[in-house]
Amino acid sequence: MDDISRMKELIDILNKASRAYYSDDEEIMSNVQYDALYDELLSLESKTGTVIADSPTQKVGYEVQSALPKVKHQSPMLSLDKTKDPAALKAWLKDKEGDLSWKMDGITVVLTYENGELVQAATRGNGETGEIITANARTFKNLPSKIPFNGQLTIRGEAVISYDDFEKINGSIPEGEQKYKNPRNLCSGSVRQLNSRITAERNVNLIAFSLVEAQGIDDINSRWKRLEFLRDLGFETVYTKQVTAADVEDAVRWFSENIKNNKYPSDGLVLTLDDRAYSLTLGTTAKFPRDSIAFKWQDETAETKLLDIEWNASRTGLINPVAVFEAVELEGTTVSRASVHNLSLVEELKLGVGDIIEVYKANMIIPQIKKNMTGSGTVVVPESCPACGEATEIHNEKGTKTLVCVNPLCPAKRIRSFEHFVERNCMNIEGLSVQTLEKLVDMGFIKEFADIFSISAHKDRIEKMEGFGEKSFNNLIESIERSRNVEPGNLLNSLGIPNVGLSNAKLVADHFDNDVESVINACEEDLTGIEGIGPVIGRNIYDYFHSENTLSAFRRLIKELNIIKPVKSTTSSPISGKTFVITGSLNTFQNRDELKRYIEDRGGKVTGSVTSKTDFLINNDVTSGSGKNKKAKELGVPVIDEDSFREMAEGI
Hints:
Blueprint: H1 3-24, H2 31-48, E1 51-52, E2 70-72, E3 82-83, H3 86-93, E4 98-104, E5 107-114, E6 117-123, E7 129-131, H4 134-137, E8 144-146, E9 152-160, H5 163-171, H6 183-191, H7 196-201, E10 205-214, H8 223-233, E11 240-243, H9 248-258, E12 266-273, H10 276-282, E13 292-295, E14 302-313, E15 318-330, E16 333-339, H11 343-349, E17 356-362, E18 366-372, E19 392-397, E20 400-405, H12 415-421, H13 434-442, H14 459-463, H15 470-483, E21 485-486, H16 488-494, H17 502-511, H18 516-521, H19 524-528, H20 534-545, H21 548-558, E22 562-563, E23 579-582, H22 592-601, E24 605-607, E25 616-618, H23 627-635, E26 639-640, H24 642-649
Parallel strand pairs: 3-13, 21-22, 23-24, 23-25, 25-26
Antiparallel strand pairs: 1-8, 2-7, 4-11, 4-12, 5-6, 5-9, 9-10, 12-13, 14-15, 14-17, 15-16, 15-20, 17-18, 19-20
Helix pairs in contact: 1-2, 12-13, 16-17
């Protein structure tokens, strides 16, 4: 592994450790391990002269601006001529060597370094004039803030957001707010923020595709080698294949087969002559440079019949239209559904059941409707939400119409609560992924927790769902049946009461001798007086069981269950009656849940935070400077490792 690759690996490891420590109060490595890796990173940064913006050795100062200043580019940034015919690339290349790469679908940025420091970053803008985004560029996740190069260096690259980060950001948008349409749309807004802290939170990456100028390296004529030069400086460069007329069509096929493996959005390919000196002699047309050409995927289309428009409620409150049509083959797969995005597009396409439509895969991935040959416009917009049955509203934001459910109790908005309900430490129902839950909610089969135990009534329709079949359905039903036998602590944890995790749920259940009715009828003082619970958690539990809506839903749920009391150990144990807190990584126990069960089976208790009533903090790094270790030291609570705990528990 070369030095730059090792640096990137270290940055990833150290940043994960920092997030775990500062955000989750977890330790995934000891201070000694962290310091050793940090020192290794510092040493490599000193050796290579490269510092990546995301490095933990750097302190990024965020900047807020009132407006983005404009800058005129030294040379115009022209658009590329385009073709959809691979054979045209062969004819264009003739006897020259070329470099074929992804055409990244983001925001083009020009970056200038002087004596190793980033001094300016600007967007492409209209090709003549761009906007200065230097403060934002300094927060790009993978961009070197320092490079081992004296003099001036200018590069062009594409600011992009990965599909994974796009999904995470969209999933974090508050209910009722409109999501971003695609990664490029999100990236554009992120790059042009006036507050660079927001840009930093979006995980923007910079993929370099061209070295424009670098003082003293004019002898590097090959564009391929110029990209290698940028990689050696620490830049992430666009994936590229060297081609000739003889193999360019094979290379296009390779890219088309691997587009699904590209973590960043791409809307085609770019073919550039490798010989830079020769390229400069070609000049430009009025609109295009003569040394490069873009290849756009030839969209494979098919005509089909529109069978239905499904309206799917989402966790944001938007009700999204999905076209269902007679199945057709596109790009080697069978397609029968396509998102129509919003109400405005339904109206623009004049959709109606029975219409003959033309469909394709955008960028060879996403099924879309290209046009409607019939244009009946007979689709009826639902007046009630398909998930909850409450009235819908049509919102018009910046000229785009959307259909919205405004019911705050809509089950579609509670997907996360259903997801939590089925987790291993709750009801432990295997086979109900968030994607499956969303489908079952969309179809109206799940409106509250109790409905999960009745989905066998919808066997025929569920077996026809994408990714399902008779075997999958039977496995799911078996898992649901097993989950009916549940301990009170797991049941209380599954309800999603704020601040109530498994440890607190078990404390409450144990206090009331695992009698659920006693928990329901407990007064607020009884709950807040439980050791390790406190006023906030106690109040949350009291409120849950004194709300008519949640209590009636809980009553319907427990009718479906067989609530069993946990079997307590009848043998005396040295740790019986003692209270423990667990933090950090474990060596002999598989995970914290296993250690919790071990303690509870022997009459001990496990709580989430260190207090004066804590007897021991278990942490394999007893000298750690974590928040829990510091609190234990302040309160005089002993910190012990796993081996010491084992000796105590087993009376050794």
